Amino acid sequence: MKIYDLSKENTVLNRYVAELRDIHIQKDSLRFRKNVERIGQIMAYEISKALPYKDMHVETPLAPAVQSVPAIEPVIATILRAGLPFHAGFHLTFDRAENAFVSAFRKYTGKDIFQVHIEYIASPRLDGKTLILTDPMLATGASMELSYQALLTKGVPGHIHIAAIIASQPAIDYICEHFPADKTTIWCAAIDPELNAHSYIVPGLGDAGDLCYGEKE
What we know:
Layout: E1 2-5, H1 13-21, H2 29-48, E2 53-59, E3 64-70, E4 75-80, H3 83-93, E5 98-110, E6 113-122, E7 130-134, E8 137-138, H4 142-151, E9 159-168, H5 169-178, E10 184-192, E11 194-195, E12 201-202, H6 208-213
Parallel strand pairs: 1-10, 4-5, 4-7, 7-9, 8-9, 9-10
Antiparallel strand pairs: 2-3, 5-6, 11-12
Helix pairs in contact: 1-2, 2-3
């Protein structure tokens, strides 16, 4: 399984991640959502390098030209709700992509004890397609796995790209154990070392959904 940690490269992506983490900049929810969207665009560009390509012949005002363009259009699948601006960034890059949405949430049964539940799914057929499964925060990996299992009811994709802004190392390990290694690629803007007792990524950035859209009950 290939794992890409994009923070290892010196690019403007790291600035956007730093702003997402900053407790002072986080007070501006509009900027927070915009940075999530920007990161989605950049990560989609990086993933585009891994797609198959073909030559496309086009007519210009002066002469024919040949451009190498993606040979396929992926399906962008996003876990709600913090994933919405992330999805928007991906969709700006892959503007012809099909789209899928999954509602996965933590249901607490005690202090720091929870189960992940899937409540809603909307997806096209996935048989043989390239699936980009996105979630800004990959904490335990459980939501990602259950979302993938739910999406399998729509068909088996040919390849899965998992995209997260910040992932924990335990979640990376979990994904490596529960996803098909021969057809899964993981893309992260940063990988943090651990989880706290509440299963939040440390250092992470807090609750991405709340920072995007306000606190929930």
